């Protein structure tokens, strides 16, 4: 799909995204610049607190986040589903149990993102709404580090399902069936209200909304199909 005349869409495209967006934004930007080679993208990946700050200062063309901020005048466009799931290592004792009460997680070594992380805020909120709070066993400043720590058996955690597909398929991580999870959220592209978007940013936003989810599904299908099959399909 060509959303705009190629030659008219060029120049810088500055995007900032929360850390968990690093698993899919490069793929979406890659597909976009194949359509519009004159666009020069940049992607800053940082946590929610930093992204919020940048949004307030109008530093980027678009920011990508997992929850629309309250108290800032913004326009937000959901373009992708985002499920947060509880994960444990391959042979975790809770793996295979059904409907695990949230309360049972209080007995586990819980690995937590740093304060300022949107994922952490969502988890804290889930416990608060059940009148509980979870004390992190260990704090790690990156979702990738948490993933590796769970695989290593250091503890359990909550991660975005998009970030762990491969490891779940390989049997290195297990999704635990905890009540209240998966927590279903969305990814949003956000900009300050009334912002005049560049042609590149406006076209990228339209691309995310019309093509984003389907593109990532295609990529997933290609990576899980057999080499012979993907060859035929190409
Ligand atoms: P985070 O944000 O990378 O700061 O945890 C993710 C989110 O808000 O979904």
Describe the structure.
Helix content is 33%, strand content 26%. The protein has seven helices and nine strands. By secondary structure, it is of the alpha/beta class. Strand 1 (11-18), helix 1 and strand 2 form a beta-alpha-beta unit. It folds into two domains: 6-81 and 185-233, Periplasmic binding protein-like II (D-Maltodextrin-Binding Protein, domain 2, 3-Layer(aba) Sandwich), CATH 3.40.190; 82-184, D-Maltodextrin-Binding Protein, domain 2 (3-Layer(aba) Sandwich), CATH 3.40.190.10.
Task: Set down the secondary structure blueprint.
Elements: E1 11-18, H1 25-35, E2 39-46, H2 48-56, E3 62-65, E4 74-89, E5 111-113, H3 118-128, E6 138-140, H4 143-151, E7 157-160, H5 165-169, E8 173-176, E9 183-192, H6 199-224, H7 227-233
Parallel strand pairs: 1-2, 1-3, 5-6
Antiparallel strand pairs: 3-9, 4-7, 4-8, 4-9
The structure holds 2-phosphoglycolic acid.
2-phosphoglycolic acid is lined by residues 18-20, 47-48, 65-67, 113, 117-119.
